[in-house]
């Protein structure tokens, strides 16, 4: 089955360019385009895509608010694409439920791969965004109570720490000397217990609670 995508950007040429790049892929279908956040939300409600490729700065409703509505109402994954590499946007976008965050100077192949990765249920951040995200955590005090993690087992807490370090399931399995299937179970359980949408939100939770420490 094809990955169904809605592309939302207020610049018609940019929007059309992204749609063209994605629509020529054999496993991706662009089902709608939107010129602002209101149209993006309406398109997701109407077409039920797998991924919403979403700009941040748009008229009527910005990408952050659109992402918040889409993530709250649907299972559609949100991939934010913007020219603005700013911490506030990264944090707000991820807290709104976005599964990925890329800059608009992303290469064609990386854009296509990002859509596939996010559609598969993984999460993705541009390297520059990741560095800035961790740097921001370094300067902020913990805002999520560590007691919120008491619902996790010891192995689930360990898994969360390794996720926060950026390890894949295969790498976590090697570190914990367990199977990948066991790791997937731990990841699924901790996301459910903490009420988190995906691995990106798990990383945020780990740092906000003080379980993970930048540079450790």
From TrEMBL:
InterPro entries: CheY-like_superfamily, NreC/VraR/RcsB-like_REC, Sig_transdc_resp-reg_C-effctor, Sig_transdc_resp-reg_receiver, Tscrpt_reg_LuxR_C, WalR-like
Keywords: DNA-binding, Phosphoprotein, Transcription, Transcription regulation
Domain called HTH luxR-type: residue spans: 145-210
Pfam families the UniProt entry points to: GerE, Response_reg
Boundaries of every Response regulatory domain copy: 4-119
Domain of life of the source: Bacteria
4-aspartylphosphate, modified sites: 55
Name recorded for this polypeptide: Two component transcriptional regulator, LuxR family
Biological processes annotated in GO: phosphorelay signal transduction system; regulation of DNA-templated transcription
MF GO annotations: DNA binding
Signal peptide: none
């Amino acid at each position: 089955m094809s990955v169904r995508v809605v592309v939302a950007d207020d610049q018609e040429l940019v929007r059309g360019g992204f749609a063209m790049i994605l629509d020529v892929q054999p496993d991706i279908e662009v089902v709608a385009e939107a010129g602002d956040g209101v149209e993006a939300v309406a398109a997701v409600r109407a077409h039920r895509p797998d991924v919403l490729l979403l700009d941040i700065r748009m008229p009527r409703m910005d990408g952050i608010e659109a992402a918040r509505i889409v993530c709250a109402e649907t299972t559609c994954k949100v991939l934010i694409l913007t020219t603005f590499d700013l911490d506030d946007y990264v944090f707000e976008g991820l807290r709104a439920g976005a599964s990925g965050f890329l800059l608009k100077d992303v290469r064609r192949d990386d854009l296509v791969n990002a859509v596939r990765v996010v559609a598969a249920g993984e999460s993705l951040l541009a390297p520059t965004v990741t560095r800035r995200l961790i740097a921001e955590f370094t300067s902020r005090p913990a805002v999520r109570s560590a007691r919120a993690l008491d619902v996790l087992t010891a192995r689930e807490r360990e898994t969360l720490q390794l996720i926060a370090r950026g390890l894949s399931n295969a790498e976590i399995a090697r570190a914990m000397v367990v199977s990948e299937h066991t790791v997937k179970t731990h990841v699924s359980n901790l996301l459910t217990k903490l009420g988190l949408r995906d691995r990106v939100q798990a990383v945020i939770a780990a740092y906000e609670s003080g379980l993970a420490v930048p540079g450790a």
